[in-house]
Amino acid sequence: MRWTGRSGHEPGRRAGRDGGRAVTAPTGQRVLLDGRRVTLGPQPLKGGGQAAVYPVADHGQIVVKLYREPPGAEQERRLQRMLTLTPLGGRPIGPGQPPELAWPTALARGTEGEFLGYAMRRFGEPGHVQLVGLFTRAQRLRLFPERTDWRFMLGVGWNLAFMTARMHYEGLVVGDFSSNNVVVDANGFVTFLDCDSIAFTDPATHEEFPCLMQTADYAAPERLAGGPATRQSDDFALAVLIYQLLTAGNHPFGGVPRDSESETTVKDNIAASRSYVAEPGCVIVPRGVVDPTILPPALLALARRAFGPGVTDPAARPQAQDWLRALDEERRLARVCPDRPRHSHGSHLTACPWCARAAVTGHDVFNDTPSAVPGSSTPTGTRQLPLLPQLPPPPRQGKHQKQRKAVRQPGPPSQQGPTWLPDTARPLAVGLTILVAVLVLVIVVNLAQGG
Amino acid sequence: MRNERQPRTLPASYADIEFENNAQRLPLVLCLDTSSSMAGPPIQTLNDALRSWTRELHDDVSLSYSVEVAVVTFGGQGVCAWRGAQPLPPETPASPFVPAHAFQAPVLAAAGVTLLTEALELAVRIVADRKSELRAGGLQYYRPQICLVTDGLPTDGTGRWTTAWQRLVPTLTDDQRARKYRLYAIGVGDISDMGEQVLKALAPAFNARLHGFPFRELLQMMSASANAEQRGAGDEVFEKIFAQFRTQRPAWET
């Protein structure tokens, strides 16, 4: 089954009805999708250096990505092979969950049959927002539900790790993994865009298609040095993204080296393995950087591994599975601040770190209204060092932790609509999860027997 | 799931905005000709384009995350730096850069002389100042973009043509070679061959001359370029974007 079937938008079928209808965008380019003629909108929705994404007249649910320069035969071959594959497709997804990949649904050709690009399902605003939209308060408040809090961020991180684990399990390498080409919806479900850059080996022909794209701020050092995209380079990007989610957008390779007059970028800090998360004090960090210890210990340990030894040693990086396990733990333990309901935080902290931060900086990460001004009475009564979360005595959830099962290969069966299930929906959700788990198991067993 | 919430008007103090995020910044300077030759439809087109571009900038989650905008105009009796919609008094210590999500387009009026040289000097200076400020604050930055737009020849304070701009060439050449910023120099309207030669000398990599006043496309090109900068794209990508921008306008001259 191809994604077109699922989304219910066979471009061709509907295009056939358009014969007698006036063309809505006469200035838009005409292209052929699976041989059917469609008209693109005159203005691209999004344009980058390599390609631009256009809406399709009368087909609101699909978009067409056209390469700026005639793509080579290799790219055409890649897209053709992609159309024969249905990655992550054999798995049922929960109700309301969008597909995890904006997989190509048809090749786009010109009137002479020349290859121009491809069609895919549209994942646009307001329903789907780039991950980077969660990294700034103004954007988060504008584009996401009001109750979006730190637990939601945990949930999105979990879904991201889950998607990565699934892709790796099926032999796909994301390659160009960044906060710009993952979108997230109001339930925290994530979808990877730009699938035409994914690295994969065709299971039928054994052809290898490498990933040729990267985004500097998420590229592991070996990729910055020109190396190929690997699972481990994905692990690096995943660690950065999860860290950003849990710290309201802070990049772990932010900050400027102390002894440097030269211009330093995130990319430079990655290349030089300079992260304040792994090595506090190695750079001057911007005012208002969230203290890394806001991460619960297990997650912080993973982050320190990824941004310390893991920078230069790809094998030392935590894998998606490791993140899943640690995030799973915290999602159940997270606490809600008694003073401000939109403040939630890890169970390792006794006082709300977001209240403390607001008291010191005047900036409330999760609320629009200035809730605490320096000098005024602070609801938490905190007077501790700026932005330093308070640590409680040794946690008592140790026993609880040990009882939990390790996450199965390749992870539980579905991304989770994070954190907001009403209590009555919980038994249903649990039931569904079990059902889906059984289904996956059956599929996996079948596959194993068949292969 | 969009909450229709207008961006809050710019507070008097920018303290809060500094905390909005710690993302690597991308300073962007629009250095705009507002001399008398721009009066009438051209300045109106420019104002309209600035307004719609501002809207697009607010809506673009990726750009508004790290771009910060400053406007420098040259017209009237001199040059002026704008902090969003507010003209700044000369010699003010305040930075004209505003985070993209809080940027409001100024409403520009056209009159007076074309102090292009002084405006470009101001643009280069505010970029350098902003870099030091960011660095001191522990904030990183991408390579800044300066976009110079003019429809005429540089003049002195009395409106006479001047060759004073030539004094900028060595510095601009060195700075661009040292990757201190990307300078785009764009001629619009009835700019002359001589005017085009000036732009070529100032910005050898990214200069262009176009008929009419397609400010909208121009600003969209600046956004595309900022986007490529965020990705960490190579020089060839910027050249491609710029070339694409040119070929989209059939009225371009070669």
From TrEMBL, chain B:
Domain VWFA, chain residue ranges per copy: 27-241
Q: Which SUPFAM superfamilies match?
A: vWA-like
InterPro entries in alphabetical order? VWF_A, vWFA_dom_sf
User: Can you name this protein?
Assistant: VWA domain-containing protein
User: PROSITE patterns recorded for this chain?
Assistant: VWFA (PS50234)
